[in-house]
Amino acid sequence: MLPGVYLHVPFCATVCPYCDFAVLVGDGDRRERFVASLIREIELWGTATTPELVGADTIYFGGGTPSMLAPEQLGRILEALRARLPVAREPWISLEANPEDVTVESARAWSDLGIRTLSLGVQSFDRKALEFLGRVHDPDAGRRAVELALEAGFDSVSIDLIYGLPGQDEAAWRADLEAALALGPDHLSCYQLTVHRKTVFGVRKRRGELVEMPDDQQAELFLFTHRFLNDAGFQGYEVSNFARAPEHRSRHNMKYWNHTPYLGLGPSAHSYSGRRRWWNHRSVGPWERAIEAGERPVQESEELSDRQLALESVMLKMRTYAGVDLAETRGEVGLDPAIDRAVLERLIAGDLVVRAGSVIRPTVRGLAVADTLARDLLS
Amino acid sequence: MDNVRNFCIIAHIDHGKSTLADRLIQACNAVEERKFRDQILDQMDIERERGITIKSNTVTLLYDAQDGERYKLNLIDTPGHVDFSHEVRRSLMSCEGALLVVDASQGVEAQTVANLYLALEYDLELVPVINKIDLPSADIDRVAEEIDEDLGLDPFEAVQTSAKNGVGIDNVLEAIVTKLPAPQGDPAAPLQALIFDAQYDAYRGVVLLVRVKEGTLRPGRKIQLMHTEKEYDVEEVGLLQLERKKDDKLEAGAVGYVIAGIKAVRDIAIGDTITEADNAAAEPLPGYKEAKPVVFSSIYPMSTDDYEDLTKALDKLALNDAAITYEKDSSSALGFGFRCGFLGLLHLDVVQERLKREYGLSLLLSAPSVKYRVLLEDGEELEVENPMFFPDPANIATTWEPFIKAAIMMPERYIGAVMDLCRERRGVNTTFSYLAVGRVELTSEMPLAEVLFDFYDKLKTITQGYGSFDYELLDYRESDLVKVDILVNSEPVDALAQLVHRDKARQRALHYCEKLAETIPKQQFKIAIQGAIGGKIIARSTIGAFRKDVTAKCYGGDITRKRKLLEKQREGKKRMKMVGAVEIPQAAFVAVLKSETDK
Ligand SMILES: Nc1nc2c(ncn2[C@@H]2O[C@H](COP(=O)(O)OP(=O)(O)O)[C@@H](O)[C@H]2O)c(=O)[nH]1
Ligand code: SF4
């Protein structure tokens, strides 16, 4: 697979109470300064980028809320990318958008920029859930945004949903999923709510005001989600991702789980070259200052050992339905992840993974505990 | 000899024994201020922290009394716990008198009474000391009354002190000189010297602390230890004045030290009698009892890499702890370790603390056990103190376990609750008698194994701290003994096996199962924890499988963080003990085993 480019846009209209991304509420001037810095960062990388990153064929605007940038600003960034970085001629461009930013005009403008996947942060079609999540839009706005996006003729329209809210039952979640499916999207990302420490929810949890869904129920809901969507023709391909057809899978995100190199630009963005990982300053300030000083805004980097690469490879691939092909890992990276046979047999007997030749794949129950599979499988 | 006094100080914990000792030492200038550490007699940290004195230390004070004479006052420190009661007895045997310290605000406490009776057993003359008279809550009249009524001592003889402020110290010294008798003995008689303690000196080897009863100890003479029948050449004798002070002899009545080229404390026996090889006494002094280990436990290093260090630490520790025994042991769950024998639970605790503190070792101890006797069907007889070596029940004809005679002293009002406790602990022939008005001594014959598990603490709670407990080994009695195995997913965990009376088996097994269920983290599969006798399951608990453990999002930026977490978990996994396919964190062993020894 060819490498990808990720652009982190750190702005949001408000900061959601569950969000632990590097985001800020910035006004127009702030955003314009950011765009200038981002373009400067692109120039700083220039063609000097490592060979592994040459020929990137996906470009992904994430955040934050990249739809808060004006189409004209997005256009300038893309222009800089094409001019300064060795990207493919026709890269697949994706944009994350919040429902309130989707209008007939903006959709057309994005389309004209060559954006092919629109990923909509709808989160829920349930009013109460949206309120709980602190979202500014209402269910109708979510619906309208999806309809507009579909009408605008993007190659792929994806809906982001959050489930596993405190007190949510299967029926409520099912209704949400049905509401989403009724709109006819191409792709769904369903994220189980995670309460991070340094968020409003985290504080409320520590104070005892917010009680997370018990583990067992979370597990049930996770299994239900996969069962339900797979039955509905939305084939799961990763822990939280489902697509109507293989071509609608997130081309860019798949690279993360495949161990394909990518270059990350913007504050907090991470990059991976196949041997090395590095990451930018998390906050906009230091990121900007580094760029102003004419330096790449890299905060830190690490060289990966063979063992670490093997661990990552298994860890990431065991998040996918495809699982890990040991023969391929050996061939591609020249690595031989040492699998603990006894553990493998136990996991197979426990219906957590299946094996076919050199491929080990998680079952849906296995996906529910994917974080531990790699830990236990590698001896 | 008329100018010698040998005495000790006995007191309930915290009533001021150590502080008073410090003041006496200071008053006699036995130490320069500069060198003075508070509570100088309590040397070891552990003792200080626990407020108990384990190793007795002795000091000779030179006191110029009001009668114009200079006296040698030998203060003999006494350890304060039942495990060491033989040591206490030995110290008492070296004295003619004792100061009985009572806190002016707390009054007479259980331990004061226990100590009093012990002192009377050795015919010691007693001087009551009412300490802490500086406290606003001091009630000297009431305490004087208690001294009269509860202890049967003359309250008018009592010396009032504030050890803290140095008040009344001279009166104490005068009382020692005037009220306590001088030792008796004949310096020309055949030598009889009681070894009441021993210390280890890295340069000189073993330093014996002795009380010379008859005869004279001189450097250059050949001595014989009457019980061990070993002979040594005396290299040096002298007085203990916090530092050793060389002298040319120790005569009858004296207390001092002897260095005689002895390599390790285990070569000698506390309580033994020293005599001269070519002019031996007819018989040794009474009171010798071999200190045999009665409590056993396996000690494993937390990290298997530390086994070498543990070996070295035990070798060193044994140089000045004659009572501990140890031999190599191994567990499939915990690796290599040592099976150790102790005088009692406190001794075990002290050794464990010292290994941790002085040698920086992190340890895991198996459940303490006693030594059982087993008669096999084929007539062979065995002694078993390690559950791992318990024979197949099918081959066992009879089993016996050690019984003790427990003596519990307490105020009368607790008698009902304490009798219940004894009954619960399989106590038999429980009787009680009045020591004084309102004070009772209860004696009960019970299995030693039953006091190994949180007995002291239960007793303390029940009697609100007023109960004191002492025991002596009685005999072995037939007992229906079983080996309880703890199984994790049907695999026995050897380090958790234990020998218990059949009636207690279920309760104990259940306790283990529950503790393990609390402390073993959920894993990918259901884990069954069972307690079993032979093949029969008597207790069980289960740990459900965790069913969800996956982060919802894993994109570009999350990978490093996730990998690092995994690496950390894998590192932690190395410290897990594998039983079958189940990972058991050390914390689980600690929790299970601790819940009993530390209670
Ligand atoms: N107020 C007061 N406190 C004292 C006196 N003697 C000892 N103490 C305090 O009582 C506590 C116990 O004393 P210590 O000598 O360690 O008692 P031990 O356990 O009998 O050795 C310590 O905090 C001492 O400082 C005294 O005469 N007056
Ligand atoms: S919109 Fe997304 S990035 Fe912005 S605050 Fe909410 S969750 Fe965070």
How does this model look, in words?
- The complex is a heterodimer of chains A (379) and B (599).
- Chain A has 15 helices and 15 strands.
- With 379 residues, chain A is an alpha/beta fold.
- In chain A, the strands form three sheets. Chain A has a nine-stranded mixed beta sheet with strand order 7-8-6-5-4-3-2-1-9, sandwiched between helices.
- In chain A, helix 6 (170-182) links the parallel strand 5 and strand 6.
- In chain A, helix 6 packs parallel to helix 8 (215-231).
- The two termini of chain A are 28 Å apart.
- Chain B has five domains: 4-179, P-loop containing nucleotide triphosphate hydrolases (Rossmann fold, 3-Layer(aba) Sandwich); 192-276, Translation factors (Elongation Factor Tu (Ef-tu), domain 3), CATH 2.40.30; 295-365, 2-Layer Sandwich (Alpha-Beta Plaits), CATH 3.30.70.870; 386-479, Alpha-Beta Plaits; 482-594, Elongation factor 4, C-terminal domain (Alpha-Beta Plaits), CATH 3.30.70.2570.
- Chain B has 14 helices and 33 strands.
- In chain B, helix 7 crosses helix 8.
- Residues 39-56 of chain B have low confidence and may be disordered.
- In chain B, the strands form seven sheets. Chain B has an eight-stranded antiparallel beta sheet with strand order 11-10-16-7-8-15-12-13. Chain B has a six-stranded mixed beta sheet with strand order 2-3-1-4-5-6, with helices on both faces. In chain B, strands 21, 22, 23, 24, 25 and 26 form a six-stranded antiparallel beta sheet that branches.
- Chain B has 599 residues and is of the alpha+beta class.
- The A-B interface holds A 6, 62, 191-194, 215-216, 218-219, 222, 239-240, 253, 256-257, 262, 264, 268-272, 277, 279, 302, 308, 311-312, 315-316, 319, 342-343, 346-347, 350, 352, 365, 367-372, 374-376, 378 and B 524-525, 546-557, 559-560, 562-563, 566-567, 569-570, 573, 581.
- Bound molecules: guanosine-5'-diphosphate (GDP) and iron/sulfur cluster.
- Residues 12, 15-16, 19, 21, 23, 63-65, 121 of chain A line the site of iron/sulfur cluster.
